[in-house]
């Protein structure tokens, strides 16, 4: 739904974190360009993209998205990208329990180091591969509730919940204030159950 003319654009920095090959770049590509590539080259360092979400009430939220590399050798660069971010999506692969454990360590790092991050979302990607599932939804739901995270399972391949997870984050970010500073607002107490899809431009 389009906003009224002259409406303020809310702009937020968002970072994607997670182990290599969990589908971070594929999620961003699907969200920004509506595309999916079966064989995606590994990100080197980080990639930068932007996309705007229009919520049901007409509010416009522009995301400045930093898609970080998952390889361990790039871990030391991650603080450069999540510093100053107001939102983060930590991605794991539902067919890899090891990637979920890695996601938990990213969440812990964000909670300790990234003071401006108001919303952390957990994305269980590759939901289209449910037959090969290693990570049970109930386990993640319990963890997300305990840590006050937004949580959705997603599929970059089928576009399942891709726009929805970004819209859910947009809904829970503080609007119409100095988004560059973060203002110490902590909205992580928002329940995943409240985070349904918003409208899209």
From TrEMBL:
Keyword Magnesium listed: no
Keywords, ordered alphabetically: Nucleotide-binding
MF term (GO), any: GTPase activity
InterPro entries referenced in this protein's UniProt entry, alphabetically: P-loop_NTPase (IPR027417), Small_GTP-bd (IPR005225), Small_GTPase (IPR001806)
Keyword check for Ribonucleoprotein: no
Alphabetical list of NCBIfam families matching this protein: small_GTP
Protein name: RAB5C protein
Taxon lineage: Eukaryota, Choanoflagellata, Craspedida, Salpingoecidae, Salpingoeca
């Amino acid at each position: 739904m389009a906003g009224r003319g002259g409406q303020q654009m809310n702009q937020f920095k968002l970072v994607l974190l997670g182990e290599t090959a969990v589908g971070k770049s594929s999620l961003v590509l699907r969200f920004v360009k509506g595309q999916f590539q079966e064989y995606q080259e590994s990100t080197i360092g980080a990639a930068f993209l932007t996309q705007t979400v229009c919520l049901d009430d007409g509010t416009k939220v522009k995301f400045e998205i930093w898609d970080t590399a998952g390889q361990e050798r790039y871990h030391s660069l991650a603080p450069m990208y999540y510093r100053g971010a107001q939102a983060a999506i930590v991605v794991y692969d539902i067919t890899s329990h090891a990637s979920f454990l890695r996601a938990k360590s990213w969440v812990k790092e964000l909670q300790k180091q990234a003071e401006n991050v108001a919303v952390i979302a957990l994305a269980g990607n590759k939901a289209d591969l449910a037959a090969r599932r290693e990570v049970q939804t109930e386990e993640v739901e319990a963890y997300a509730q305990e840590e006050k995270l937004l949580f959705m399972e997603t599929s970059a391949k089928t576009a399942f919940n891709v726009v929805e997870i970004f819209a859910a984050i947009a809904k829970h970010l503080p609007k119409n204030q100095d988004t560059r500073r973060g203002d110490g607002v902590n909205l992580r107490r928002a329940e995943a159950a409240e985070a349904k899809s918003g409208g899209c431009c």
